[in-house]
Amino acid sequence: MKLNQNYRNLEESYLFSTVARKVSAYAAAHPQAEILRLGIGDVTLPLAPAVIEAMERAVAEMGKKETFRGYGPEQGYAFLRESIQGYYARRGVALSVDEIFISDGAKSDLGNILDLFDADNTVLVPDPVYPVYVDTNVMAGRRIVFANATAENGFLPMPDGRVKADLIYICSPNNPTGAAYSRGQLAAWVAYAQKVGAVILYDAAYECFVQEEGLARSIYEVEGAKECAVEFCSFSKTAGFTGTRCGYTVVPHALAGGALHKMWLRRQTTKFNGVPYIVQRGAAAVFTPEGERQIAENLAVYRRNAKRLSDCLDGLGIWYTGGKNSPYVWLRCPGFDDSWKFFDHLLEEANVVGTPGCGFGKNGQGYFRLTAFGGEDTTAQAVERLQALLKK
Ligand code: PLP
């Protein structure tokens, strides 16, 4: 027996465990303190009533012999894939139903897709970014190069012709920076991928937050993207499915001459047995008129929170990205070069918790992430405390 030695090359992730440890130590020492948490990127609003009703109906179906369902199609039920097809079509993107694969969330498929690629590929990952892209490739022993996201490029790195990459990760709107690419910027990435023969792994987990005209919600809004990009998306942030688990991955037929679609289908039918029927019924309800209306109300709450946070930073003259097209606000730590020192300062002086930017990559040092997924009252109170603490 030989272990996968690549696991030894993983860096320990202390980010959220250190945040939790520091917060509980502070709470234990200051039991009166009312700590406001704007750290972890989990949603706080419940599932929409339309989703719950659809799942309840599905539960009842499972309890009757005539309507009971056993194994479903590995790629997902047609009713959900067709609803997703319609969702893309309304944004001008034509997909065939069999290009859409239902998953138990974007995180699983972001890792699973790597089955299709040789270990001898070079991977280009933005820094800072969602840590899963780096760790899944370290586990496979792939070479990783970084695309520097900095204040100078608005945390939106563009292709560098001198860098040779085979797999390119793009996360837009980005976690943690909230920065979102325009269609024109993505067209430059598509052109680069086509020139060097690379595949783009496009993470659209936060697409529903994009509001501004000209910004992309899907990479397939860019001509030629179907020949070079896989897209991952999720109901987690769109519809509060972080605990319910459902997402989807788009693998176009045109990609790599059809090879990747065929391989992904083979991979999924071999290693995956599909998402529960009940969950898929809940996900399909997201696209009904009632579901869409209810979900829009929830998203409006998060957007108001994001606006409160960005207005606060505008008022304080603190540089940031995100907020407008994203549930994350990414700020330069005012008066601190070290993200953890700023974390301690906010925790101790304002009892507000955020996430230190250095936990997402070296370029995150000196930056800080606040999430708009908190409650409205929590966010409004946090804003008041930030204003009082950080005003010059
Ligand atoms: N992609 C990004 C950029 C994320 O931030 C997250 C979750 O926070 C995910 C994917 C995971 O999504 P899911 O809940 O669908 O697995």
What does this molecule look like?
The protein is of the alpha/beta class. It folds into two domains: 5-47 and 296-390, Aspartate Aminotransferase, domain 1; 49-290, Aspartate Aminotransferase, domain 2. It is built from twelve helices and 13 strands. The chain has helices spanning 15-29, 49-62, 78-89, 106-112, 132-140, 183-196, 236-239, 259-271, 277-285, 289-316, 339-350, 376-390, and strands at 36-37, 100-103, 122-127, 143-148, 167-171, 199-203, 229-234, 247-250, 320-322, 328-332, 352-353, 355-356, 367-371. A seven-stranded mixed beta sheet has the order 2-8-7-6-5-3-4, sandwiched between helices. Helix 5 (132-140) links the parallel strand 3 (122-127) and strand 4. Helix 2 packs antiparallel against helix 9 (277-285) and helix 10 packs parallel to helix 12. It is globular. The model has no long low-confidence stretch (mean pLDDT 97). The protein binds pyridoxal-5'-phosphate.
